[in-house]
Design a protein that fits this description.
about 150 residues; alpha+beta; three-stranded antiparallel beta sheet; 4 helices; globular
């Protein structure tokens, strides 16, 4: 049996939205009723934030890297890693740094979930999406959408 390498405690949060500020939320496969935006860790230390964001968007939603406009919101969240996922990180690692992006896509953008990671998706108006998110940092990012997407 091969062991998976530890996750790097540097990740992205990508708020995918339409020009009308409808937000895509996806439901995690490993946590019931855990709605979130696209998130994911760097594959290696020198992977850029933008490359991580584009890769994670494609892996989780099937949205190609050249679809829409990716914007670096120049925000970072540092938070305690949820206890249920600490085993994925090296011993002693308890905090993660998350870099935030927005991705504006056309309203009719097709979504193809990776079934190992997510079970469902839905588009919601931004305020409703913020209320639906499990993660407080994700909800806060969505609440900034009208200002940052302008």
């Amino acid at each position: 049996m091969t062991t998976r390498p530890y996750k790097i405690p540097q990740s992205v949060l990508v708020v995918i939205h339409t020009p009308d500020l409808d937000v895509l939320l996806i439901n995690r496969a490993d946590a019931s009723n855990f709605w979130q935006s696209v998130t994911g860790a760097k594959d290696h230390e020198d992977e850029s934030w933008e490359a991580t964001a584009r890769r994670e968007v494609y892996e989780e939603t099937g949205i190609a890297p050249d679809v829409g406009t990716l914007t670096d919101w120049h925000l970072e969240n540092v938070y305690d890693i949820y206890p249920r996922w600490l085993h994925r990180y090296a011993p002693g690692v308890t905090r993660n740094t998350e870099h935030v992006f927005g991705l504006c896509v056309p309203a009719d953008t097709p979504i193809k979930l990776n079934p190992r990671e997510h079970t469902a998706y839905r588009w919601l108006p931004w305020r409703e999406a913020a209320d639906t998110c499990f993660s407080p940092s994700n909800a806060e990012a969505i609440l900034m959408l009208p200002e940052l997407a302008a």
